[in-house]
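User: Second chain of the day. Same drill as before.
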Amino acid sequence: MRIHHCLLGMFLAVAPSAYALEAGSPPVLGPLQQQGQAARLSAQFMTRFGYRPVPLDDALSAKIMTSFIKSLDPDRTLFLQADIDKFMSNSTKIDDAIKREDLRIPFSIFNVYEQRVVGRMDYARTLLKQKFDFSAQESYSLLRDEAPWPQSQAESDDLWRKRVKGDWLRLKLAGKTDAVIRDTLDKRYQNSLDRAFKYKSDDVFQSFMGAYTTSVDPHTDYFGARASAEFDISMKLSLVGIGAVLQERDDYTTIRELVPGGPAQLSGKLTVGDRITGVGQGPDGPVKEVVGMRLDEIVQLIRGKKDSVVRLDILPADAGPDGSHRIISLTRDKISLEKQAASKSILPVKDGAATRKIGVITLPAFYEDFEARRKGDPDYRSASRDVAKLLGELQQDDVDGVVIDLRNNGGGSLTEAIELTGLFVGKGPVVQQRGANGRVEVESNDRPAAAWTGPVGVLINRGSASASEIFAAAIQDYGRGVIIGEPSFGKGTVQTVVNLDKAANNSKPKFGELKLTIAQFFRVNGGTTQLRGVTPDISLPGLSDAKSFGEASYDNALPWKQIKPAKYAPAGDMAALLPQLQERHDARVSNDRDFQRFVEDVAELKAQREKGVVSLNLTERRNELAAQAARLKERAQFSDGLDLGEDDGLQADERSLSADIAREAARKNAKDVLLNEAAAILADEADLQEGVR
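Assistant: Same format as last time:
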């Protein structure tokens, strides 16, 4: 089998966008022969080579069925109890079906799902013609993942009446007129309905395989051809295309952003808001109309080989639907995804009469261009190489300490986690791996000396997982720096990517790839981050819900265990400094209005989660908003009054493009109280370490 590399990350698949409605019922989808073959081959790998092999039997079959149904209808608003009873009558047959390469059961369920979507969206649209009574004492439950399935059509209708009423009330409270609300919601439900007519066999198979793999292990996954390509792009941080970020808006593929230095931006022929209505290949190939097509299919048409030509039929941003089009030609080139790469900044922190400079390196993922490295490219892209360069620049800037911001970094390459640790620790063991056979191997870094020897802080949250946890744990075990933030995700397993086509000796790609859990990693101190994550030295509040997000939220997660420590020599001793760091932190945040407001927001969000329901009474909701407005007014006395949490009742694609971009920019530019406090903690560390010297 072909193994790409050891991986420690979590990667998210994006669902298709909405498309134009076609008359009649949605298409009846059926499995392809190659999908049944891919499922059987995947089963063989998972049952034979997984870290914790799970037999494909009736017990697992029932779990797969439950997981698949949940992936389609997580809020239990589409299927009826009668549907579930019918589905579950086949719950012990999926294992035998996979072995026979017969996937008719999951496809039949998906076809019912499409019908239910159409039925519910049609009903939701009819409700927009009536007048809602907002004086009634009603509420809608936001937490329906464990609620009973509707027992009858009438019960389902009442559930959807409340859901539509809630959507209407949000827009009404945002000041929208009835006519605008009716038009907005009609289009929203139409878009959801459209999606049912654009699903394809590959979508069903990807969803089913996701249910199968996660029933075996939370981090085992299957990649179809397109998902595999996106995974490779996320690791390389590059692709070949025109350098434009696209978004679907009102059936048009719209340019949301131009990547600096890309063909689209350099040409001067495109602007944000332009709409792509057709795509042609080469200097004179026919232009294919793409209005109403799936966004992912249009993206595939625009991407291609380096130095090849793609022609676009453009409807300018300021033109109406009947406006004049223009055809432009662009030459595809390699596009670097710099927004997803490591970046640096410097935060000034007042320290008495002086001001300390704290460098911040933000690392969104542990990326590595596996292919370029394998080919011996001396300039291959990787997270540790980029961070090493940034550390050199920060040294030139004479910073007093460096914070590594790993918030929401879901992981990536194991090699990069080891190399990154070496930048701060130097030569020595970083992580221990235990395979399915029980053998433990110690993974070490060979860097002769650390690239940065000054004060270090690592900022983590619940979204910091896997490779992020390896790095943070090593820094903590070596006593090299202070860990700040929330307890991390708790993913302590290692995955490898198996190319199923290579394994089957296919000459052309058919089967996709399997991301398979093959090992568990342990800290150099013998503990593991599995389940418990990395516990910070200085805790900060966070917005995540630990009950629903993190390794502990999976019912089939591996337990926490401990093995013998590796032989390593601590690089420092943070334990002596932590009491003083904590004391200074507590004193500072108690007088920091911004920090205390963040604490209030966290408490309010937690209360809303625990409440789990939203009132559909206009007076009650207005009173809630009035209380919130009063709180924000009090805040405005001490800040610029910017409220990023204000609810306009709209989804992202329902706002104007300029308004949506402005909201995104406001979020990006908002004061980051957690990062500011992490920098202040590191400034304290620098001060205390100087005192020791």
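Confidence is low (pLDDT under 50) at residues 1-23, 638-644.

User: Great, on to the next one.
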